[in-house]
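Researcher: Here's my situation. A collaborator sent me these components and asked whether they could plausibly form a single complex. I don't have experimental data yet, so a predicted model of the whole assembly would be a useful starting point for our discussion.
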Amino acid sequence: MAFFWSFSSVPLLGLLSLFLTTLQPSSSAAAHLTTTSIRFRKPSTTADVPVFREAPAFRNGETCGSSTVDRIHVAMTLDASYLRGTMAAVLSVLQHSTCPENVVFHFLYVRNEPQVFSSIKSTFPYLNFKTYRFDATRVLSLISKSIRQALDQPLNYARIYIADILPANIKRLIYLDSDLVMVDDIAKLWGFDLNDKVLAAPEYCRANFTNYFTDAFWSDPVLSRTFERRKPCYFNTGVMVVDMDKWRKGKYTRKVEYWMVVQKQKRMYQLGSLPPFLLVLAGNIKPVHHRWNQHGLGGDNIEGKCRSLHPGPISLLHWSGKGKPWLRLDSRKPCNVDHLWAPYDLYRPSRHFFEE
Ligand SMILES: *[C@@H]1O[C@H](CO)[C@@H](O)[C@H](O)[C@H]1NC(C)=O
C-alpha cells in the first residue's frame, strides 16, 4: 500500500505550519494565528476520532485492467470532524465500482492527526491511498468570512491547490466532497469526455446566477463585466472532474486566487471557496448529467432544513448545505433523505451506548 507524506516545497512555510498544526492553541505561535479572522478547531484528542468497523475487501471484476492507465484517481479532504462522512463516501465508491482495486484515493489534510490516518487504514485495510499535507498558510490570508463558519476552514480551499500538490503524472482527477455517497460506478464519471475543457461538473442553468454575487459586484462597472461573452451557470465544486494538465498549464490556481484577493477588498460574494471557481470557470465547463450531483440534501446554509430528492436518475447523493446526515441521524431527527446515507455509515458507536 502506498502511503507517503508530502512536504511543502517552501521549507520555511512548511516548517511554520508544521508547528501550527502540532502546537496547542494556547501556545504563542497559535495565539498569533488567532489574530487573523480564521480560527483553527481545537486539536483533536483520541476521544474525538470515532471508531469504525472494518469494511469488506472489494475485488476487481474479471474485465478490469491492472496497469497504471486503468487507475481512477480520486481526491478528498481528510480531517477528524468529517471522518464519518469520508468513510461513507469511500465505501460507497468501492461498493459500486466494477473495478474497485483500480481506484486510488488522494487525501489532503491540514493537521497531522495520526489517529485519522490509522483509522482509514484499519477501516479499509486494502485501500489504495496516499496522504498529502495541504499547507494552510498558503490560503489563510486569502480566506474571507462566509455565511457559514464551516465553509471558512482552510481545508475547504485545498481543492484549488490540488494540481500543485498531487504528482505531475496524475493527468485526470475526480474531486469529491466528504458529505456525499456514490451510488453508481465511478468509472462512468471518470471516462467522461472533457473535450477542450479543464473541468467537468453538473451545471445548473436554471438557478438564478445573480444571487451568488452581491450588489457590490453587479453594480461595479468593471467587475460586472466578468461574465461578458460567457453564459455563466452555477456549478457545485463538490463533484468535479479535472484535467490536471490543463489546470496546471492554464495556471488556474493563480486565477482562482486572484479573485480571492479581489474579494478581500470588495465583498463580491458570501459563500466560501465556490464563488471564485464560478468567477473563473462558470460558463466554460463541460456539463455533466445532473445525476452525478444531487446536491443540497443538507438543506440551506442557514438552517439546514429537510429537502426531498429532485426527480430523475441518481448516481451521487450530496448533503451540501448545513445539515449533515450523520449529525441528523444521531440527533434522532433525521430527514427522509438521510436514510439513504445510513447504509454507508461504518461508524461503530461505543459499547456502553447499548448497555443499560
Ligand atoms: C434573479 O435574481 C435577481 C435578484 O434577486 C432578480 O432581480 C432577477 O429578476 C432574478 N432573475 C430571474 C430570471 O428570476
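Model: Some features of this prediction you could bring to your collaborator: Residues 208, 210-211 surround 2-acetamido-2-deoxy-beta-D-glucopyranose (CB under 6 Å). The longest helix spans residues 252-265.
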